Amino acid sequence: MEPMDVLPLMPKFELYADGAARVELRRVMDDLGVALDLAYPFTLTGRTEIAGFVPAMECAAELGAGLINALLYDRDPTRRLAKFGEFCDLAGSFGLNVAVEFYPPSQVGSLAAALDLVTQIGRPGRVGVNVDLLHLMRSGGSLAELRAAPPGYVLYGQVADGPATALDDAELEASSERMLCGEGDFDVAGFLRALPEECPVSVEIPRNHAVGTETTAMRARRAVDSARAVMA
User: Fold this and answer.
1) Which residues lie below 8 Å from residue 54, measured CB to CB, with a gap of 6+?
2) How far is CA 93 from CA 1, 30, 86, in A?
């Protein structure tokens, strides 16, 4: 919902303060029949003041977000759990459900760690995990682990492909250099089967090397078509 410095190719825009832009976006979404599954970014650190998320949550609620995505970097486990619980309470006051995205460089770096966190909150169906296939593979997780997750706690999935051996720069791979489905070594079809029935899935395949040689629409189409092909 806002530009991020770590994604310099993202266009600059303003949704939090510009109410007119938000209304126009919702109008276009409604006209096109497009729903918002997952709203970014919500990053919690040791210094985060949870009340500071109010404008972002208001925006996500107005746009009809099904989930808001949380990344956690707080190194203190007790404080991390307490702040995350406060975050979930605030989200609930806006009618928003929460998905924790585990990410190896963060302080919730695996599916097991994410499930441990959300089961302590104890709100299945409303507070759960966003499972990104790239992060699952890079954290040493498995599809068997995903299939064994307790009911109600896997709320979202994200697909991409990648090589069996990770790039030296994990953050660059995750943010900018993923592979189209079918180009790498991941079992994308198996991942989709391992997700709970009716679990929403998105395609997250940033390919910065293709910027300038492919249009935005072409990159989006190739990403979606690659996911559909492995599902066939």
Assistant:
1) 90
2) 19, 24, 11
pTM for the complete prediction?
Answer: 0.94
Q: What is the DSSP letter of 207?
A: B
Q: What is the pLDDT of residues 1-54, one digit of tens each?
A: 988 887 888 888 889 999 999 999 999 999 999 999 999 999 999 999 999 999
Q: What is the DSSP string of 14-27?
A: --SS-HHHHHHHHH
Work out the burial of residue 42: count CB atoms within 10 Å of its CB; fewer than 13 is exposed, 13-18 middle, 19 or more buried.
Answer: buried
Whether the CB-CB separation of 108 and 78 falls below 8 Å is answered with: no
Strands 154-159 and 127-132: parallel
CA distances from 150 to 44, 59, 115, 118 (A): 25, 31, 8, 11
Residue 97, helix vs strand vs coil: strand
Q: Give the pLDDT mean for 85-101.
A: 98
Q: What is the dihedral of CA 55, 56, 58, 62, to 10 degrees?
A: 140
**Hey, what are 119's tokens?**
């089961």
Output the pLDDT for position 98.
98
User: What DSSP string runs through 141-183?
Assistant: --HHHHHTSPTT-EEEEEE-B--SSPPS-HHHHHHHB-B-TTS
pLDDT band at 146; cut points 50, 70, 90: very high
H helix or E strand, kind and range, residue 230: helix 216-231
| Contact status, residue 137 vs residue 188, Cβ threshold 8 Å | no
SS3 213: coil
